[in-house]
Amino acid sequence: MESVVQEKGTLSIHTENIFPIIKKFLYSDHEIFLRELVSNAVDASQKIKQLSSYGEYNGELGELKVTVKLDKEAKTITVSDRGIGMTADEIKKYINQIAFSGAAEFVEQYKDKAGSEKGIIGHFGLGFYSAYMVAEKVEIITRSYKDDAEAVRWECDGSTEFELGPAERSDRGSDVVLHIAPDSEEFLSEFRIREILEKYGKFLPIEIEFEDKVINNPTPIWTKNPADLQDEDYLAFYKELHPYSEDPLFWIHLNVDYPFNLTGVLYFPKLKNDFQMQREKIQLYSRQVFITDEVKDIVPDFLQLLHGVIDSPDIPLNVSRSYLQADGNVKKINGYITRKVADKLADIFKNDREGFEKKFDDIGLFVKYGTISDDKFYDKAKDFCLLKNTEGKYFTFAEYQEAIKENQTDKNGTQIWLYTNDSKKQDSFINSARKRSYDVLYLDTVIDPHFINTLEQKLEKVNIKRVDADTVDKLIEKEFALESVLSTDQQEKAKGLFEGLMESKSATVQVEAMPADELPVVITFPEFMRRMTDMQATSGQRSMFGDMPMMYTVSVNANHPLTAKILETADETQQKALAKQAYDLALLSQGMLSGQALTTFIQRTVSTL
């Protein structure tokens, strides 16, 4: 039997400044001291379970709950476990020799046993010393599981001096007692302790008790076999993560053990146009310990619109387990998650296209974002990313190309895809396109200006134009063009008349042959300027054109009866009034007529009835 003798000594470290370093630099957030100590207690509990399963501990396991107790009067926080415990020699080895990780040694010792690393959290051996960020003195009262082991008490006041001696403890396990320093008394609050425990320990694999209540779910859904779960289980867990959110559309259960370990559940929420608000909803865990919700390195940018949990012991963390470090595994995991998401979407599309189409208005923003930002995702998504037309019909890219190739291929052999981003404002232009039996797509989300550019880069001989970017016959130019009923002189006269109405130098007037049933005057904006402005607005940038009005074209319909009537009117005042009426009608169709100008137009129109 090992005898414990009273002794004093110095901690085995190479600098006496280790504690200031720990307190000020190693851990950026002081609250994680509780995460580290509770994680250590969980480790100790997991180890005794594993030793029992190996037949190396034959005693009763009993209840392995970790308990956190707050004593405001004594100004202490105590973390207790009934885990593996420590002998005096082990304290000297694991506590006095700073940065010697007991978890790492345990894993190495039992590495040949199946699943030996599963559930062991600590790797750096520095977690215990995070206690000195908030404590002026720390005590450990511990007893090893080993036969005939004696209880041991260790104490250190944050200097390099420690005391080690016998203690009174009848059961295996450890109590870590923190005597809170005056500058850290914010942690002597039930609310604060509960807040920290729920943040970092909500899903720890051993029950954590505080104020006589268990605060965690030790077997969260991602630790279970997908075959044993129902839809209700996934929905219930989503509510646990996001109590006030709408139900998700569907989810993906991640479960891989080679070439890295990764588990988790990712949910597809109903996305809103303001997708910046959707971010930071994926939580990163390492063996069920919360690490961060900033997952930009491990999860591709577009997948950060998803919600849920990722858990991996193979994600490289810095020594304080507070953020990711650059590593090859991160890139592999990133690629794996992208592939799994794409495969899930492809599977839903293949097996239930009708259901997929019903969900697409909600997930389309996410899928489009993926096609823009990730070439590998695009390669898969091109077969299930859908286009929706103004009649509510959905097409894949290939289906749409086939559907419109006969009617919407221009004289140069290029397919012209027409779209609207505001069907109400652009209604007259949509109707003009329909008269030609042209199809018009809805591309009206905040990300569509970028999505359109991606499609034009990826698809051969496809040009995408907003339906009001030009007159209908110029949007899709054919071999045979309409002829003007006006003579050259009449066209020049009409052009001059309308140029006289223009107050803006950004306007260009042209007279062209259009069908007689089109508007007498059509106002259009160049596609490239519209798209550039929309893209800059999406990214929150100011327009490159500043406060200058956008260039636009005023197209006078040479074949409209009103144009001929205007030219035939002898009274110059009446002629200008008719031209102004036609021009204002064009402004109205573009949503450019408002305020006093709109009132005057209405009054003038009514007076002619």
Automatic annotation (TrEMBL):
One of its GO terms (molecular function) is ATP hydrolysis activity. Residues 29-184 form the Histidine kinase/HSP90-like ATPase domain. The keyword Phosphoprotein does not apply. ATP binds at E36, N40, D81, M86, S101, G102, R321. InterPro entries: HATPase_C_sf (IPR036890), HATPase_dom (IPR003594), Heat_shock_protein_90_CS (IPR019805), HSP90_C (IPR037196), Hsp90_fam (IPR001404), Hsp90_N (IPR020575), Ribosomal_Su5_D2-typ_SF (IPR020568). SUPFAM superfamilies: ATPase domain of HSP90 chaperone/DNA topoisomerase II/histidine kinase (SSF55874), HSP90 C-terminal domain (SSF110942), Ribosomal protein S5 domain 2-like (SSF54211). PROSITE patterns: HSP90. Keywords: ATP-binding, Chaperone, Cytoplasm, Nucleotide-binding, Stress response. Pfam families: HATPase_c_3, HSP90. Belongs to the heat shock protein 90 family. This is Chaperone protein HtpG. It comes from Arundinibacter roseus.
